[in-house]
Design goal:
This protein has ten helices and 16 strands. It is of the alpha+beta class. The strands form three sheets. Strands 1, 2, 3, 4, 5, 12, 15 and 16 form an eight-stranded mixed β-sheet that branches. The chain has a six-stranded mixed β-sheet with strand order 6-7-8-9-11-10. GO terms for molecular function: endonuclease activity. This is Endonuclease/exonuclease/phosphatase family protein. Keywords: Endonuclease, Hydrolase, Nuclease.
Length: about 375
């Protein structure tokens, strides 16, 4: 367990004021008669794949709680979770003096929150928690999408685990003997067969209903699919894209529904700030555990925090939480972009990096 002093010192050294203020009320000035105007809160949302509950590295379970204790996000979307792993995390956080609530999803993925969860619901590959932040209700969705059909590997010369009898299934997850496959139409067809976009559209429809009830909506997850904003003409000859430009359909559907990609809003350039979240380096794991395409540059941004614009919510910042090193061609290397990292001084529990986005949210009730 990381000592509180170490955590506080780390926070002060590496992140901006916006993140430090997370969870603190910003009450409006009071007039002469003591009446308060609208209040605001800084709210932080963390997308966090916990790699089978931290079971893959020594002290990984403690590392999950130490990460949350250091960052103190208001809402965490957990991927590779389960009811048992969530219960372990809540117990470990309680040992560190922190109270979180969970959305009782019977499977993966989960939502945990420092604010009360007043409603919850499960969907295929997704779950929802409605939280009450001083009278402002927020529907937060957590997703962990199908990991097979990982067809962003095809241009890199590897099979993407597409099941039979579909095309490319004969390669499994192995290197393709004939080299990269750059047929974008084929890539898009196999990506659609994954069902990732279809199950996400179910949640997008639910989110639209939540907004009709006056609620804010956010969704985050490990999509196991890149962003259409990252496989562009400018990146077509980088990161072993091998000349391909791919309009990945899940992020596109989310944006078409009006949501905004918080990381790309703050860091719009996919060359200067690629924001890769997988694979992440992890000092507690061999490189062979961290790469599925050992001869390729397989880095991608597959973990996201999206929000739907509303006058009551304003994006302030989005940063990567995790090591600033990664795995390229089975070697540990420094990330090549210019993004900010909240680097752990504790045990990093996962093969992903996490995404932390900070918002200012207007609340209906002044906070005293």
């Amino acid at each position: 367990m990381v000592r509180r002093r170490e955590l506080l010192g780390m926070v002060g050294a590496t992140v901006g004021v916006g993140v430090l203020g997370a969870g603190a009320a910003e009450a409006a000035p009071r007039d002469a008669k003591g009446r308060g105007g609208p209040s605001h809160r800084l709210l932080t949302f963390l997308q966090f794949n916990i790699w089978l509950g931290g079971s893959q590295v020594p002290d990984g379970r403690a590392g999950i709680a130490d990460t949350i204790a250091a960052v103190k996000p208001d809402v965490v979307m957990l991927s590779e979770s389960s009811p048992e792993r969530v219960a372990n995390t809540l117990a470990d956080l309680a040992d560190r003096g922190l109270t979180y609530y969970d959305n009782a999803n019977p499977t993966d993925p989960a939502v945990i929150s420092r604010y009360p969860i007043i409603e919850h619901q499960s969907f295929p590959y997704w779950s929802k928690a409605v939280i009450d932040v001083d009278g402002t209700e927020i529907a937060a969705y957590s997703g962990h999408l199908e990991y097979r059909y990982y067809v962003n590997y095809l241009p890199r010369g590897y099979g993407g685990g597409t099941p039979a009898p579909l095309e490319t299934s004969e390669y499994g997850w192995d290197e393709i003997p004939t080299g990269p496959i750059t047929d974008v139409d084929l890539i898009m067809r196999l990506n659609e067969a994954s069902g990732r976009t279809a199950v996400t559209k179910t949640v997008l429809a639910d989110a639209a209903q939540e907004r009709c009830k006056g609620r804010l909506t956010l969704l985050a997850g490990d999509f196991n699919e890149p962003s259409h904003r990252d496989w562009t003409r400018r990146t077509r000859n980088l990161f072993d894209h091998n000349g391909t430009v791919v309009e990945w359909s899940t992020t596109k559907a989310i944006e078409d529904a009006g949501f905004r990609d918080s990381y790309r809003e703050i860091h719009p350039d996919p060359v200067r700030a690629p924001g890769f979240t997988w694979p992440s380096d992890n000092p507690g794991a061999d490189t062979g555990q961290l790469t599925w395409a050992p001869k390729a540059d397989e880095r991608d941004r597959i973990d996201f925090v999206f929000y739907h614009p509303d006058r009551r919510i304003h994006l302030l910042d989005s940063v990567i939480v995790g090591p600033s090193t990664t795995i390229v061609r089975n070697e540990r290397v420094a990330e090549s972009g210019r993004e900010k990292f909240w680097e752990p001084k504790w045990t990093w529990p996962t093969d992903h990096k996490a995404v932390l986005s900070t918002f200012r949210v207007s609340t209906d009730r002044p906070h005293h």
